[in-house]
Amino acid sequence: MKIFREVDVAEIEDMAAGGAVLGTGGGGDPYIGKLMAQQAIRKFGKVKLVRTEDLPDDALVVPVCMMGAPTVMTEKLPQGDELVNAFVALEKLLGRKIDAVLCGEAGGVNSMTPFVVAAATGLPLVDGDGMGRAFPELQMETFALAGVSATPMVLCDDKGNTVTFETVSNRWTERLARAATVEMGGSALLAFYSMSGAKAKECVVRGTLTLCESIGRTLREAKANHGEPVKALASLLQAHNMFEGRIVDIERRTVGGFARGKVILNGTDDWKGHEMSIDFQNEFLLAMRDGEVVVTTPDLISLVDAETGLAVTTDSLRYGQRLVCLAYPCNPMWRTPLGIEVAGPRYFKYDVDYQPLAAAE
Amino acid sequence: MKIFREVDVAEIEDMAAGGAVLGTGGGGDPYIGKLMAQQAIRKFGKVKLVRTEDLPDDALVVPVCMMGAPTVMTEKLPQGDELVNAFVALEKLLGRKIDAVLCGEAGGVNSMTPFVVAAATGLPLVDGDGMGRAFPELQMETFALAGVSATPMVLCDDKGNTVTFETVSNRWTERLARAATVEMGGSALLAFYSMSGAKAKECVVRGTLTLCESIGRTLREAKANHGEPVKALASLLQAHNMFEGRIVDIERRTVGGFARGKVILNGTDDWKGHEMSIDFQNEFLLAMRDGEVVVTTPDLISLVDAETGLAVTTDSLRYGQRLVCLAYPCNPMWRTPLGIEVAGPRYFKYDVDYQPLAAAE
C-alpha cells in the first residue's frame, strides 16, 4: 500500500487541536486524545498514513472510535488497550486480516483513537473519516449513507468486557450499543463498519487527518507570530464568524449516554446587545441568534476561544468564557436527502428545515 | 446418548403447569410456554429426554432461556425462532456441534423454551435445570456456583438483532444483557453457560422436567377426582402451607427490566385476622406474616390458587384472588455460603439472614 507520510509524536499535537475544532463541541477532549496517541506512538513507533485513493479495492478497512458522553470520557481516561481489543476481536470475527485502520469521526479524542490502533498493529491509517466532523450517534456515518452496515461491531470496555452486535439496522446498532455503553460506565471503544477499499473510496470523507493538522498548525503559528488565530482559522475553513460573546448561561446534563444542553452567549464587540444560544447533544447542533435559527446540523458549528482559536468542547464550556462561533459547510454527502434525514435538524426533533450554509469567501 | 423417554404434545400441558409452580411467581406464563413448546413439537416432532447422569463427559451441553420481565413476555409472545437463532449462533461461535440442550430455569415459559430448541434441532434435552426454580438474574444459576462462565453468551430479539457477550464475570453478563433486553423491548432469548457433560453432572439440578410433569399431573388428577389439589401439591413438594388468604393490595412496576412489587393477602379460614405480604422481583423473594419474615429466597415461595392449586405468576396477581402460599426448600446447592451470597436475601438488599426452611413431612 502506498504510504504518503508518517506521523510522529510531534505532529500529533496539531492534529488533536484540529480534531477538536471539527468535533464541533463533541468527539472528546483533545488533551486526552493527544496523550493517548503520543503514548502509543512512543511505544510502538510512527504511524503510516495512506490516502483513500491509494487503498487497494480489495483491502479490508476498519474504522474505530470511542463511544459515550464526552463529559464521561474526560473523567474516565481510556487506556487504549480496549480499542485494540475491539479491533482484534472484530478481525477474528471477520476471519480475515484487516489491511488498514480508518477514523470513525473527527474530534479531539476520536481523530486520535485510530492512531492508537494503527500504532499498536503497525497497520496504515487512512487519511479521512466517516463524518468530516463529529456527530452524536453511530448511524451518522457517511459509511452508513453509502449502505455499509455498522455490524458486525465489537464494543469493549476498560474492565475487559466485550459485546458483539449483529443488527438489522444501523439505528438498532446505535440503540443497543448506547445501552451497553451506559452500563459500562458511560464510555466504550468500538470497531465497526468494516468495508472494502473500493467502498471506502465511495464514502470516506477524504483528507480529514491532514486537515486537522492544518487547523492545529494554523492556530499554533498565528499565536507564535502574534497574529489573529480566529481570523486565520476562519479563513482556512471558509467559516463564517457568526458571533462573538461571553457565556452567560449553560444548561448541561448527561442523559441516556449523551451530554445534552444549551449554552447562551451575550455579545461583545461587534455583537454587543445581541444574544446567541446553541443547543448541543455531545455536538453543537443548532445556533440561534436573537431568537432566529442561523445554522443547523449537519453544517458545522464550532465554538472557539476568542484569543487562541482553540476549540471549546461541550464539556469544557464555563461561565464567562469569551468565545467566537464559527460556522461552515458540512461535506456534500450530508446534504443529500438521506444525509439530511440521518443528521439534519428534524432528526434531532427541531422543527426547522435544513438551510445549507454557503462557504465564506 | 441414552434417551430415557420422549415427550409429545400431550405431556407438555402438565410440565408447563408444574414449571409455573417452581417458577415461584416468575419464569413466565405457563399458557404461553405451553403454546410455544406444543407448536414446536407439532412442527418438528417429539423431544427426546436424557438424564443428567447419562450425558457423555465430553458432550457439549448448552442451556437456553428467555430473559426479561414476565409482564412483558406475556404481551410480547416469543416466536421461538429467536431462541433457535441464539442457540445456532452460539454453536457457530463455539466452533463445535452442541450435543444436548439444557433448561436454564424452571418456570412457566422457561421450562418450555428448551423444548422449542430441542424440537427444532432434534437434539436431546437434559432432564434438569440450573436453578430448580426461577430467579430474576442470570448469574443465579447453579452452573455459575460451579464456576461455569455465562459467556460466550448470545442474546437475540424478535426483530433479528443478535448481541454476543464475552464478559469478566457473570454479574457483568447480567448487567449488560439486562440493558440490551430493556432496549430490545423488555424480553430476549439467549443461549449461555455452555459446559461439558462432566461439568453438567456436577451442577445441574436433576430431574426438574419430570418433577414439573409430576406437579402438573398431581394437580390435574386431584381436580379430576374431586380431590384437594393444594393438599396433594404440598404433599408432593414437601411444602409448608404458610398462609391462605385474599389479595387486598398489589403494588407492581416494571423497572430496569424487572417486574418489582409487593402483594398483600388478608387471611381466610385458619388464617383469619392475619396478614401476609410477599415481595417480588419477577420471583417471590420474601414472605412476611403479621410483620415477621417467615421465608426468604433461595427457598421457594409459590402462590397457588386455593381451589385448583395452579400457580399464580407475579404478573397475573389480581385483587380479590384467593390464594395459598406454599414454601419449600431450595436445592442444597443454594444453601452453600456462595449460593446464599448469590441468591440469598441480602443480595436483594433485605436486612435479614437466610434461615433454611425444613422440608414439611
From TrEMBL, chains A, B:
Residues 169-357 form the S-Me-THD-like C-terminal domain. Pfam families: S-Me-THD_C, S-Me-THD_N. InterPro entries: S-Me-THD-like_C, S-Me-THD_C_sf, S-Me-THD_N, S-Me-THD_N_sf. It comes from the Bacteria. Residues 11-166 form the S-Me-THD N-terminal domain. Gene3D superfamilies: CV3147-like (2.40.390.10), CV3147-like domain (3.40.1610.10). This is DUF917 domain-containing protein. It comes from Ketogulonicigenium vulgare (strain WSH-001).
